Amino acid sequence: MMRRRTVLALAGTGLLAAASPRPAAAAPRPDLWERWTRHDAASTATVDHGAWDRFLAGHLRVEPGGVNPIAYGAVPAADRQALAAYLDALAATPPSRLNRAEQFAYWVNFYNALTVKVVLDHHPVASIRDIDISPGLFADGPWGKKLVTVEGEPVSLDDMEHRILRPIWRDPRIHYAVNCASIGCPNLRTVAFTAANADRLMEQGARDYVNHPRGTSLADGRLTVSKIYDWFKVDFGDTDAGVIAHLRRYAAPPLAAGLASATRIADTVYDWSLNDVPG
Question: How far is Cα of residue 184 from the mean position of the Cα atoms in its chain?
């Protein structure tokens, strides 16, 4: 199954039609990996995400323009080692022994921290799409490579997003939780996800993104939205009307007023530039 990033890259090469019968806007639908549905509803075990909290506090910049980059080039060796140790600890933690809420935080933090490590391992790059380590002739970026082993299973970033998080939790706000290290993506949250704060962080992430121009903009009655709402339209009702209803839920004035009369999406945008601090 082709990934959203692969599809985007091929769309401009003329190779897409031969590679896949789907249109250029297609992206993976949730494809449940059944073994990760195992959980312990009675478990009170928690996962320590303190190392990820400390990394975010030290290297995620909160910028007034609304796009929060990471100073990848300024991350010292000690912090890289701490990040790697955190990921090793997550890989050694059996998520099947956690309750559902702990599992959600586990997989979101795992995805985000692993993405940052991949960028750090290949930095400097202009875009995460330039990290072409995924298998396959038409592969793009790092998402398809099996990067970690959890409970004996090799797991990729694509697995975490499309075979675990999306199909198990079926919550469109997941797209405001996972971060693909791009300017066009919703921001990394400034703190790690936990069972206690996940709902609040996703709600805030939705409000931040919907009300930022890279998420939604209106000009002369034309509605332009992030390609995320196109690639993953199935998660937002599978129609323009479903996407617009979602946007209205989080829109602040005056965007909400403009969306009140919107009936269709005119265009989509996305910026694959790395969420890096210039210089």
Answer: 11
Report the run of H or E that residue 156 belongs to, with start and end. Answer: strand 153-156
The tokens for 152 are: 């004996």
Would you give the DSSP letter of residue 276? Answer: B
Among 89, 92, 96, CA closest to 43: 96
| Burial zone of 167 (CB within 10 Å; 0-12 exposed, 13-18 middle, 19+ buried) | middle
Domain range summary for the chain, segments of one domain joined by +: 35-195
The answer to pTM > 0.85 is yes
Peptide bond into 167 cis (omega under 30): no
Give, for all 279 residues of the chain, the pLDDT tens digit.
334 444 444 333 333 322 222 334 457 889 999 999 999 999 999 999 999 999 999 999 999 999 999 999 999 999 999 999 999 999 999 999 999 999 999 999 999 999 999 999 999 999 999 999 999 887 889 999 999 999 999 999 999 999 999 999 999 999 999 999 999 999 999 999 999 999 999 999 999 999 999 999 999 999 999 999 999 999 999 999 999 999 999 999 999 999 999 999 999 999 999 999 987
Q: How far is CA 166 from the centre of its chain?
A: 11
Between CA 211 and CA 233 the distance in angstroms is: 18
**Is residue 254 reached through a cis peptide bond, with omega within 30 degrees of 0 on the bond before it?**
yes
The three-state secondary structure class of 22 is coil
* 140 touches 9 (CB < 8 A): yes
| Counts of helices then strands in the chain (DSSP H, E) | 11, 5
144 neighbors 3 (Cβ within 8 angstroms): yes
Q: Which residue has the tokens 């091929």?
A: 10
The total of other beta-carbon atoms located within 10 Å of residue 131's CB is 20
172, 236 in Cβ contact below 8 A?
Answer: yes
